[in-house]
Known about the structure:
With 198 residues, this protein is an alpha+beta fold. It has 8 helices and 8 strands, in the order αβαβααβααβαβββαβ.
Amino acid sequence: MIWPKAVQERVKSGHDREIIQAYPYRSACPSTVWGELTEGATDQILLAGYTNYFVWLEQPAFADTLRRKIDSGCRVRFLLGDPEGEVTRQREAIEDVALSVSTRVRITLEQLERLGRLGVSDGGLEARFSSAEDAVNHVSLSVFRFDDEALVTPHLATLVGHDSPLLHLRRLGDRGMFDRFAEHAEELWTRGRPIPLR
């Protein structure tokens, strides 16, 4: 091979192969990526951001899309932070923005309750608040899973979610980056408190 060192430095060969794209800001990830991942999911969607509010604003007819996904057998889950929790209050003080963390969570709750009233919560749509013990871990890392792809946002100190970086991951094997983040989200989900949607 000619220039093996140069090639080796450019070709992904380890677990970094699972990184499809990295964005310096979540807001730099095109909304089409979110839409394509949502549309492409057939088995499961897990939105484990602390508020998840932005998807309702940025994705056209998102409720209709979720309804179609659920009707086709896709499991849709939302893991949220407790709008009344201590970590939520602390985060609001840190962010100090007009659209507070608790308000953003309530936007998602309102949308989920609408879906629940339309009868889509029978097993296909589930929602939980992360436990009080897990809230600090939840608020610092958002994992949005679409089958074997995920968008992951590690939240930086005082920044709101859209100003934090984002990784687009695709599962290529066991125990890679995708699995590590997916397992983190599942662990938080397991200990979460169910939210009634009717």
